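Deliverable D2.4 — example input (structure tokens):
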């Protein structure tokens, strides 16, 4: 018995494609989740991050495994590039609202300001944060714009007030959201 469904679906696809006029662009659905594998300058994976859109908030999760015990600043940066060893290619903090750095700064915070990542003796640590008014891939100033975004981990903790980066030290690990 011949299966007619693939042939019918193929004809339907040709019909839909044939209805498009030159210059028509099919709308693209907004991205609802992005992942980042965060690597140190030697290329070793030290953490994973995810960003997802939910109920008017951008939900960011970071899970570290393999970092030395301590407190590390974590920030979202404007450019989806992570060129070692210093990761300067990731650009400045994601800041579409043009605020200053830090939740304790009266003129802050950036949308890319995240909590410190607290890593225990076992090398593991995590946090989750909802960023109100932030968009993953739609609206003005979305996280995933044309040049993407990256999540960076810094050598020291964020003081949550010093502009532009919370006096958090060198960039030690980076991951591109994709």
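Example output (designed residues):
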């Amino acid at each position: 018995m011949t299966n007619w469904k693939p042939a019918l679906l193929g004809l339907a696809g040709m019909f839909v494609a044939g209805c498009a006029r030159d210059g028509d662009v099919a709308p693209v659905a907004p991205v609802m989740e992005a992942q980042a594998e965060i690597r140190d300058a030697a290329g070793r994976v030290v953490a994973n991050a995810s960003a997802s859109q939910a109920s008017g908030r951008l939900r960011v999760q970071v899970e570290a495994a393999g970092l030395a015990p301590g407190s590390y600043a974590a920030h979202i940066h404007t450019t989806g590039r992570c060129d070692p060893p210093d990761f300067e290619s990731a650009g400045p903090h994601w800041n579409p609202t043009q605020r200053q750095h830090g939740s304790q700064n009266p003129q802050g915070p950036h949308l890319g300001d995240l909590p410190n990542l607290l890593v225990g003796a076992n090398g593991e640590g995590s946090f989750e944060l909802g960023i109100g008014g932030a968009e993953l891939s739609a609206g003005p100033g979305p996280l995933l714009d044309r040049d993407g975004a990256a999540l960076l981990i810094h050598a020291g903790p964020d003081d949550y007030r010093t502009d532009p980066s919370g006096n958090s030290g060198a960039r030690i690990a980076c991951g591109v959201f994709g």
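The domain at 33-176 is CATH 2.60.40.200 (Immunoglobulin-like).
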